[in-house]
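Q: You know discrete backbone vocabularies at least as well as I do. I have my own habits and do not want them to colour yours. No explanation is needed for now; the record alone will do.
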Amino acid sequence: MLLLVVLGTCSALSAPAAEAAVYGPPPGKVIHSGLGGYGPGAVSDFTRQSGRHPAVFQYFVSWRAAPRDLNFIRGMLANTSRAGSRTALAVSTNGTGLTPRD
């Protein structure tokens, strides 16, 4: 987790502000986000249950290198894109042996 925080901070600080893309909502609007299931209908299920379509849909994933895990993540990215939302991944390094130095 610390690795992600450090990398995110370094990335944010290294990018010139003039080149930064703005992903905020239009004036007077709020971006609605959600998180939940991992199946193909997760975004539509969230939309139905909350009454709002999420602009961003978040998944919690673990940092692994197994091809089946990468295929699973690719599937989540494709499902979210088809549903008209952007994907946010919360990546855990727990149990991987990764350290900030790695």
Observations:
- DSSP finds three helices and three strands in the chain.
- The CA atoms of residues 3 and 9 lie 10 Å apart.
- The beta strands are 33-35, 56-62, 86-92.
